[in-house]
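Notebook entry, structure prediction.
Reason for the run: the old model in the group folder had no record of what sequence produced it. Starting over properly, with the input documented here first.
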Amino acid sequence: MEIKFGNRTIGMNHPTYFIADIAANHDGDLERAKLLIRLAKEAGADAAKFQNFDAPKIVSDYGFAHMNAQVSHQATWTKSVVDVYRAASIPFDWSMTLVEECQEVGIDYFSSPYDFTAIDFLDQYVEVYKAGSGEIDWIEALERMASKGKPLFVATGASTIGEVQRAVQAILKINKQLVLMQCNTNYTASPNNYDHLHVNVLKTYGTMFPDVILGLSDHTHALAPILGAVTLGARVIERHFTDSNDREGPDHKFAMNPKNWARMVEETRLLERALGSSDKFIAENEVQTAIVQRRCLRAARDIKAGEVFTREMIDVLRPATPGAIKPHEIPDVMGTKALVDMPIGKELRWTDLGA
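New structure, fully documented this time:
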């Protein structure tokens, strides 16, 4: 399976596609948003992603007010949930400016929409849609994104395999261009979160949904989850991106800074090179090693023409001279005759042996 958009192709035989999710880290400042786009490009990201939503269309003020407490990552917020979402939203009229900035620096632009208006609005600006984990069971929204005919990336945090299966089936009926992303939606930046990433779910997705591309949407800092995911077949990686983890805001603490992002990309590119082929063969840079490190059959003493070979007349020694008889062929040598004189240490060749 391959997905093409713009000048990109993603799939198993192509480089991992890195999405820098700027999300709310623009801090309400368009110039900061543009700065983060440039920093993401410099750090090796392939895409800069934003989020388009209108706070009243994504959260219920009444619902959160009547929870009596803010929980999980929201527990540290000093403002109400609705106020935080309102501050984090991107004005729709920023879109063209952000697109132009991405085009200028050579990075893909797209955004996650969180209501029907945003889905339809973004169609003129994006070549890819991304559905956040919270939309996994809002099938009509997934279908609306899928109906745009563009690649759809879907995160699957805080969901069951049944919910994922239902979403995948609904999308694939409309659009075959699907990237399915394992995700854990704990945004606390706690070290304990590594125990809950379950990157191995990618193996399940690969078995259940062989016709989709796999990805990981992650909210931790270490390289290990990313390298593990790529090893398991993920070819799309998404992490939040900021210029500083010390800034105030809902997304800064668990985001990656440019230095760590660049290292992540660098290590992944090395991993891709190291993963190589699934075929087993003598690699190009091993050809000489295969001679000096492996063994062949050699005369254990001076041998006269006409002598019949016994095991005691044979040594198994390095180097494995090209054309010499190999160790696994010892049984076939037993009982043959030497056709020529052989000094001790001489490699045995089938042309020098007879019945």
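Summary: The first helix runs from residue 30 to 42.
The old model has been moved to the deprecated folder.
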